[in-house]
Design a protein that fits this description.
By secondary structure, the protein is α+β, with helices and mostly antiparallel strands. The chain has two helices and five strands; from the N terminus they run αββαβββ.
Length: about 100
Amino acid sequence: MLPRLFVALQESNPGTLVEWKHNELFDNETIVFGSVFWAFDLAIEGFKSCRLIISVDDTHLYRRFSGKLIAVAFDVDNEIFPLAYAVLEEENNVN
């Protein structure tokens, strides 16, 4: 089940893709965040006119949420074109 934030994101931006990973604890009522990926429909459509080069850039998140925010981008004029976003755990051998 997607959190309300991402349900609202998809409802207000039809065609937006959201992939959410989580872990359930022993009581099956507590959900622990794992990772989330989203791409807006307009960015997906806009990528059709971009170069076939994707650049992955990560920005470290601090304080309450450790991990990384990743933006994937590049366009025909060598300008940054936001394509997709993700919040996930720190990079390790598993991911």
